[in-house]
Design brief:
mainly alpha; single chain; about 190 residues; globular
């Protein structure tokens, strides 16, 4: 059986979204986040402002365009792991992978920009809360619980915070391992 092909309309929509995101990131890094407005991004990407907003809810969302993969990857680390793989090592492996990418030299200019903007730091914090909620729901479902118990929510927040702390560490891999030793101990108690 072959996988369904993506239609022309979906491909064009995805290409427009990517063009807007790429243009925004380039402008933000060249000129500074606060110096670039939505109209600047739309004009440079050759789209209407309404088209930009049909793809992105806010200016901050343009910066975090790839972050929806973060949520999906962590949820899949819970749901797609083999039946014999424990939960915490699966999450550790995924956080290691994400942190390596985010701590790379290639990603450094983006994170400097985020760290220098109060609006972007606040947006990232709200995203981390949403991701923790989503991860807690996946963990609860994995444990056959109807709703995330306190332990599921706490572990999810620890995992999300592990990512942020490790990304900022001089040695991200070591930081992930140190943090996950504590997460593992907390999970055993739960």
């Amino acid at each position: 059986m072959t996988a369904p092909t993506v239609g022309r309309r979906e491909r064009k929509k995805a290409a427009t979204r990517q063009k807007i995101a790429d243009t925004a990131l380039r402008l933000f890094l060249e000129r500074g986040y606060d110096e670039v407005g939505i109209r600047d991004v739309a004009a440079e990407a050759d789209v209407a402002v309404t088209t930009l907003f049909s793809h992105f809810a806010s200016k901050e969302a343009l910066v975090f365009e790839q972050e929806e993969n973060f949520d999906r990857r962590l949820t899949q680390a819970v749901t797609d792991r083999s039946p014999d793989e424990p939960l915490i090592p699966a999450l550790r492996r995924e956080i290691h992978s994400i942190v390596r990418h985010c701590a790379s030299a290639e990603a450094a200019p983006l994170w400097r920009m985020i760290n220098n903007s109060p609006a972007l730091r606040q947006y990232e914090q709200s995203m981390r809360q949403r991701y923790a909620d989503s991860l807690a729901t996946a963990i609860a479902a994995d444990r056959n619980q109807p709703a995330p118990a306190t332990a599921c929510r706490a572990i999810a927040r620890f995992v999300i915070d592990a990512y942020a702390l490790a990304r900022e560490s001089p040695n991200p891999d070591t930081a992930v391992d140190e943090i996950f030793e504590m997460i593992e101990a907390a999970w055993k108690v739960a």
